[in-house]
TrEMBL record, chain A:
It comes from Natronorubrum thiooxidans. SUPFAM superfamilies: Multidrug efflux transporter AcrB transmembrane domain. GO terms for biological process: intracellular protein transmembrane transport; protein targeting. The keyword Ion transport does not apply. Involved in protein export. It is a multi-pass membrane protein. This is Protein-export membrane protein SecD.
UniProtKB/TrEMBL annotation, chain B:
Part of the protein translocation apparatus. Forms a complex with SecD. It comes from the Archaea. HAMAP family: SecF_A. Keywords: Cell membrane, Membrane, Protein transport, Translocation, Transmembrane, Transmembrane helix, Transport. The chain crosses the membrane at residues 20-40, 138-157, 259-279. Involved in protein export. GO terms for biological process: intracellular protein transmembrane transport; protein targeting. This is Protein-export membrane protein SecF. InterPro entries: SecD/SecF_arch_bac, SecD/SecF_CS, SecD/SecF_export, SecD_SecF_C, SecF_arc. It is found in: Cell membrane. Belongs to the SecD/SecF family. SecF subfamily.
Amino acid sequence: MGPISFIKEHWRLLLLVAFVTGAMVALFVPGGIMADDSYVESQDDNPTNLEYGLGLDGGTRISAPVVGMTAENIDAGAVNEEDGSVDRQRLTEIEQTLYDNDEFDLETGNARVSVDDDGNVHAEIFTDEVTRAQFAAALAEAGVEVDPEEDIRDGVTAQTRAQIVETITSKINAAGLSGGTAYESARFGGEYYIVTEVPDMDPDELRALLSERGIVEVVAYYPGENGTQTNETVLTGADIATVDPPRPSERGSGYEVPVQVDSNAAADYQDRMNDIGFTGEGVGQCSLRGDGETISFDHADEQYCLLTVVDGEVVDAHSMGPTLASSMADGTWANDPSFFMGAQTQQQGAALSVNLQAGALPAPLDLEQEQTLSLSPALADQFKLYSLLIGALSVVTVSGVVFLRYSDVRVATPMIVTAMAEVVILLGFAALIRMPLDLSHVAGFIAVVGTGVDDLIIIADEVMDDGDVSSQRVFESRFRKAFWVIGAAAATTIIAMSPLAVLSLGDLRGFAIITILGVLVGVLITRPAYGDILQRLLTDK
Amino acid sequence: MGYFDVPEINYTRYSNRQLAAVPLAVLAVALLVLTGSFLVTGTPVQLGMDFAGGSELTVQTTSSEAEIANAFDEEPESIQAVAAPDTQNQYVIQFTSTDSSALREQAEQNLAQDGDADIVQLESTVSESFGSETQQTALLGIAAAFLGMSVLAFLFFRTFVPSIAIVISAFSDLVIPLAFMAIAGISLSLGTVAALLMLIGYSVDSDILLNNHILRRSGDFYESTNRAMETGVTMTVTSMSAMLVMGVTAWLFGVELLASIGIILFVGLAADLMNTYMLNLSLLRWYKFHGVRS
């Protein structure tokens, strides 16, 4: 027999062998098919290339929606229709009107007017204490007419969500933890949840990290015109270009975070410091002291303090040092605009550094509506073992029933082997695309063995119908008949599972995806091969 | 052939009405149970944490079950000891409260530590609003899956009676396990929803097989039936045994998701055996011998 006719005759079997081999390589060869060993090194106690999700690896996951409402596509008159240029000043003006509104008192960072890539203007406020009607009225004050019912919706814009995801990702990774991820997940009804997964943090820690907005401001606290002290925000987190880790302060107690101010903001900052007297009479004039957390504002003398404010809380107060003051006074500081931001403790310093690096969370998360799952690595290991045990027991059961039913090893053995091959191919696929496996996937694998064997039973019964299979022709026609039923059954299973694969029903997506893939692999690869094996065994060729 | 053979049933002894009466009666009882439960509790089936909101802790502690029950300000909904190899002193506790940090704190304060293992091994919370949204999504999913399956059934057979027979028995395959859940006190979770969807796909297989043998093959009605039954019953029994083993072991191990999928599929497939070979069969026989052909 020539090689071509050999392939022609056994292509189904060869296809199965090829897929199983590919799956084995993807599963066991370090680095897998992609030959990318960067990842494998990090988990050396894992003999396969499989990746595990939270449910089998431990960690914490918190999903929560974003607080806020959005007036989408408002007619702000800020975008020039012809050349698409944007009037930034007009946007800031609207934003300021929202902040100035008397009916609701918005904190810094809780209003935003922005333009998306298509030139549509959106106004958002990030609080749940304002009604739609109030929001609409506030916008009307700024000259923007919106219908409170039609144009305003709950939730925030895609842009804001993307920024939240980005900020959280850098926050969890800046906190010295690797392998944390954040992503957004659409819920039925158009709502979005922000999902954060971290391998080693308990829920309280993660919740604390997520509930902190991280809005950093430098506020100048100085004597105003009529003798009372004034607060003025002189720098915001966005004005800081680079940040170094915190270190113990060189002058006196506490910690400091070395920062470099953005070159665009540096000159203004320098001018303002000179104008309000920080570089003159105010040098070294700050006697406010803290208790390790907040700052006490009991004082008699006039104060020139630079306050570090995080989320509206004053965490530290510092005076302007003489060296810094003189370089500002002669205007050279703006050429190399670096200084230190103060913090009272190492912890505060670290938090400040992370907040500056990651940036502020554009909108708060509604942790009242959260969904949390947290699993210790020890329990996750147990689950891994259990999954293996449950899977093995199910396979043994299925094999037992099949052997009892057919008593012919020639029929039953290939049946079990083929069903197992299906699982191996799927596992290989999961390793290849690095799908993180969870308990729901395990359920999917077991379901795949179940449906797989069902279909093989249909093939076996059909082919062995009415005595021996005498010729190739008889075999082929019977096999084709069996395949109609299998195809129909596969189609219904896929239809039934597809809503789960599309809708975001938490853990169940994995189950649905594995089941659907399993059915496809079965119909296209393993079941035809089983027919081939059975034919060889039964027709004595 | 084999150590167990599918028994051949002499269908000629029973009339169509007799055959259909049993599954229809069971379906009626199941619907009655669900209606009753709906009238009493407001939902046909008790809603689990995934849908109603609540918290779950898995704790590792040397405290006894009674001590665990008293350790929390709020009385736990349920406490289940995990019975797995190599695992002792592990309990799964469910609460209706969603304040999981308070629960965690109470557990860490009031329960005795077992060696150096963390007391709280798993913490899971679903807020009420998240749950009710999930509920809507799940309902939509089941409806879409059922509708899709029905459309496919009609496409496959293109005649009314055999197609509707599949749809009716699939409906009954869903309702009977739901009623079982209401009676056995199993609450609806994401796992059981997955099982119900899987049932829509799984249970239709044997119906398609039966319809196919009877309508699309030559040969005597009873001969075709017996042949379809031999294959179909083997299939269903194999799946049932796999699901039973998975359900029971997963339940012992405290792996809830796998346990509920296994148990519900087992019950649903058992219902499917009855529905396929009594309800569907009687409709097909009526169609074959008395029905109007188009």
